[in-house]
């Protein structure tokens, strides 16, 4: 059992709240789906689920129900726009952050069952650097760090990268600048971040691109729709489309077992070792 083809697991993170990380996760998912990839978006903000709210979806069950064994992952997934599927987080269920061995085995089983049915798993993490965020990020294959041009965003992104590098030996990070006024501003944000990482850490940062500040994003959020779906020609949507084309070219995991089971196994091992 298990997936026969590799699944790309991308954690979208940033260290700070209010930087539009969930918007990036949602719209990148849609853009990748448009390129023909089968995308599952996992809302991993276990304390404050918001992907379903952002898309106006009404989950009947969540990841918590899967762990309890009352349903399987396919029952929990809801169809989102553009053919993406969303795994809603169990909002306010704090024990999701501290799972026991049996629940973890259930999670691995749940994900390996859908492995043949997807190409990309996008994990929208919570803000901050809690244990749950670190677990999801370090289990993923690609880490996409979202930053804005404000000092707190850059310091928080740096703190997250430093922690992942120092404690877990992670060395490769992708960076996306969000809500920028000009393409140049995106490069400037990236330069500010690399200035500190180059000086103090042994990591490689790769610039993925910038999403401009766009009034249409706020309009879409108010209508509980993805900007990519509602305003496909908006500045933000065009930028996301270009970024998705780059992401589509990222190398797939070489392991024939795919990265999905590896992702969940690592998620579990860590929790076992952290407990």
Explain what you see.
The chain has 275 residues and is an alpha/beta fold. It has a single domain, classed as 3-Layer(aba) Sandwich (Rossmann fold), CATH 3.40.50.300. 47% of the residues lie in helices and 17% in strands. It is built from twelve helices and eight strands. It has an eight-stranded mixed β-sheet, with helices on both faces. Helix 7 links the parallel strand 6 (142-147) and strand 7. Helix 1 packs across helix 11 (235-248), helix 5 (101-114) runs antiparallel to helix 12 (259-274) and helix 6 packs antiparallel against helix 12. The longest helix has 18 residues, at 151-168. InterPro entries: FlhG, MinD_FleN, P-loop_NTPase, ParA/MinD_ATPase, YlxH/NBP35. Keywords: ATP-binding, Nucleotide-binding. This is Cobyrinic acid a,c-diamide synthase. One of its GO terms (biological process) is negative regulation of cell division. It comes from Halopseudomonas phragmitis.
Q: Could you give the topology of this structure?
A:
Elements: E1 8-13, H1 21-34, E2 39-44, H2 51-54, H3 63-68, H4 73-76, E3 78-79, E4 85-87, H5 101-114, E5 120-125, H6 131-139, E6 142-147, H7 151-168, E7 172-180, H8 183-200, E8 204-212, H9 215-222, H10 227-230, H11 235-248, H12 259-274
Parallel strand pairs: 1-5, 1-6, 2-4, 2-5, 6-7, 7-8
Antiparallel strand pairs: 3-4
């Amino acid at each position: 059992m298990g997936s026969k083809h590799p699944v790309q697991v991308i954690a979208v993170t940033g260290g700070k709240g209010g930087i539009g990380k969930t918007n990036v996760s949602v719209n990148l998912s849609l853009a990748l789906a448009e390129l023909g990839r089968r995308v599952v978006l996992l809302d991993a903000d276990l304390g404050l689920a918001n992907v379903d709210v952002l898309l106006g979806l009404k989950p009947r069950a969540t990841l918590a129900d899967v762990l309890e064994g009352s349903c399987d992952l396919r029952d929990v997934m809801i169809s989102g726009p553009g053919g993406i599927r969303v795994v809603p987080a169990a909002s306010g269920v704090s024990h999701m952050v501290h799972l026991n061995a049996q629940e973890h085995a259930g999670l691995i089983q749940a994900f390996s069952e859908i492995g043949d049915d997807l190409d990309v798993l996008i994990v929208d993490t919570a803000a901050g650097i809690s244990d749950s965020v670190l677990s999801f990020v370090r289990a993923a294959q690609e880490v996409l760090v979202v930053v804005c041009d404000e000092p707190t965003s850059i310091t928080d992104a740096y703190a997250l990268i430093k922690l992942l590098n120092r404690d877990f030996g992670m060395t490769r990070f992708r960076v996306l600048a969000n809500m920028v006024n000009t393409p140049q501003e995106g490069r400037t944000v990236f330069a500010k971040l690399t200035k500190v990482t180059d000086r103090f850490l042994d990591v490689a940062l790769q610039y993925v691109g910038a999403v401009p500040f766009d009034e249409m994003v706020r309009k879409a959020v108010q209508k509980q729709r993805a900007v990519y779906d509602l305003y496909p020609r908006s500045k933000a949507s065009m930028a996301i489309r270009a970024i998705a084309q780059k992401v589509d070219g990222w190398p797939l995991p070489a392991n024939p077992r795919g990265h999905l089971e590896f992702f969940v196994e690592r998620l579990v091992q860590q929790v076992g070792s952290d407990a």
